[in-house]
Design a protein that fits this description.
InterPro entries: Bact_solute-bd_prot1 (IPR050490), SBP (IPR006059). It holds the Pfam family SBP_bac_8. It comes from Cohnella candidum. This is Sugar ABC transporter substrate-binding protein. Keywords: Membrane, Transmembrane, Transmembrane helix. The protein is α/β, with parallel strands linked by helices and 441 residues long. The chain folds into two domains: 180 residues, D-Maltodextrin-Binding Protein, domain 2; 207 residues, 3-Layer(aba) Sandwich (D-Maltodextrin-Binding Protein, domain 2). It is built from 18 helices and eleven strands. The strands form two sheets. Strands 1, 2, 3, 4, 5, 6, 7, 8 and 11 form a nine-stranded mixed sheet that branches. The chain has a two-stranded antiparallel ribbon with strand order 9-10. Strand 4 and strand 5 form a beta hairpin. It is globular and about 65 Å long. The termini are far apart.
């Protein structure tokens, strides 16, 4: 074969290989297109939530929600210690790594003012997304607004109760004066033969626990943190000082633990169960189911709950003002799937989701569920929550809430350690609060 003929055959062979290769690519491509177009990607959202009882309860809603809507929801759990930092950093940076976020109602104003969470009214008012009659917005015990617009709805509601040993105290005290008398009777500092070490206990740790617990006392005595009208500090009011003086009186007479600043939810609950305290107040409603189910404590069956005590006015009426707050869901303003996020939010806070949430140990923020006779025996705390919520108050919904709490907790630390008088501690706090509110009109 001549060199020219060999070159011709090589050229033809090369050309055929190119045609075959290109044909193969086309065929592969044609086979790939239908596979891609036919693949069904499930609708999916990410839900950012803190680790704990709420996450465990909400996890029970995921499967029934997906069966009902076809939307898959993944929970992204973050530890409790770093949760607020993570939420603030991610939302304010405009992260779209999650669609729905679990936040306390006190964070709503700050996040809404920054445009980090989406208004919910457009979802609620859209008949294609929400059946308003079935959703029954008036059934909520609380909804959370900023500048008149709803930004968050609660999955949980919390308030403060009085816990007491019914074997020692047959009738719960109605006023804080009665609480003090009983605390004297059941404190070993006053009576070494007392069956309990202290007459009274309550959580007082930070962050926020101290301010929230003290709020019930502050409001019941007639005091307040700041004015609703102009944000002016009210901790210097005589009524506010009386609440702090009452706390110092309990501490000086050793009717409550001297190391109260280290008492958290678990330590307070355990002190009731171990028989160390006769009463706990103000204390969270969430402790009661755990106390009821405790099989080891010899005192659990004697621990009862009652409305938080109040102050008797000149007409003999008892004024009560227990604290309340809600853990809520809000839609991330940067979510790529806001309508799907709303579907999960409305399911989790709705009547169907709320009923499932009860089975998982939660406390839904819906009147219809808390008043349902079906729960009268298994959840006796529900009716007391409803009664408490009739007079309960929530903390100020302000954009500078974290700074307000930091100032207040610093003052309370000085009061609880007897380092400063209420007048001195609250005078300094009032000055700081007034500077804060002036800078955040």
């Amino acid at each position: 074969m001549t060199r020219n003929k060999l070159n011709i055959w090589l050229f033809i062979a090369f050309g055929l290989m190119v045609v075959w290769a290109l044909g193969g690519i086309v065929l592969l491509d044609r086979n790939a297109v239908p596979a891609t177009s036919e693949a069904k990607t499930p609708d999916s959202i990410k839900v950012l939530i803190r680790t704990g009882t709420e996450a465990a309860a909400l996890r029970q809603l995921l499967e029934p929600f997906e069966r009902s809507t076809g939307i898959h929801a993944d929970l992204i759990e973050v530890g409790r210690d770093g949760y607020f930092t993570t939420v603030g950093t991610q939302l304010l940076a405009g992260s779209d790594t999650f669609d729905l976020v679990f936040v306390p109602n006190t964070s709503v104003a700050e996040l809404a003012s920054a445009g980090a969470i989406a208004p919910l009214d457009p979802f609620i008012d859209n008949p294609a997304l929400t059946d308003r009659k079935a959703f029954d917005l008036p059934d909520f015990l609380a909804v959370y607004r900023y500048n008149g617009t709803i930004y968050a709805l609660p999955t949980d509601i919390s308030t403060h109760f009085l816990y007491y040993r019914s074997d020692l105290i047959p009738n719960p005290p109605e006023t804080w004066d009665e609480v003090y008398e009983l605390a004297e009777k059941f404190s070993q500092s006053r009576d070494p033969a007392s069956p309990t070490k202290w007459g009274l206990a309550m959580p007082a740790v930070v962050p926020e626990e101290r301010t929230k617990i003290f709020a019930s006392l502050l409001w019941t005595f007639g005091g307040d943190f700041i004015s609703d009208s102009d944000g002016h500090a009210l901790l210097g009011k005589p009524e506010s000082l009386q609440a702090a003086q009452f706390m110092q009186k309990l501490l000086r007479n050793k009717l409550i633990p001297g190391d109260l600043l280290y008492w958290d939810f678990a330590k307070t609950r355990d002190a009731l169960l171990s028989g160390d305290v006769a009463m706990a107040a103000p204390f969270w409603n969430a402790a009661y189911p755990a106390i009821l189910s405790d099989k080891e404590s010899r005192y659990a069956g004697n621990i009862k709950i009652a409305l938080l005590p109040g102050m008797k006015d000149e007409q003999g009426h008892i004024r009560r003002a227990p604290f309340q707050h809600g853990w809520t869901f809000a839609v991330n303003a940067s979510s790529k799937h806001p309508e799907w996020a709303w579907k999960f939010l409305s399911y989790a806070t709705g009547k169907q989701g709320g009923a499932l949430y009860v089975k998982a140990g939660g406390v839904p923020a819906r009147r219809s569920i808390l008043s349902d006779p079906a729960y009268a025996a298994s959840r006796p705390d529900f009716r007391l929550i409803l009664k408490s919520m009739e007079v309960a108050r929530e903390e100020p919904s302000v954009t500078y809430y974290p700074s307000m709490v930091e100032i207040t907790e610093k003052a309370l630390a000085k009061i609880y350690t007897l380092e400063s008088s209420p007048e001195e501690a609250f005078r300094e706090a009032s000055n700081d609060l007034n500077r804060l509110t002036a800078a955040n009109p």
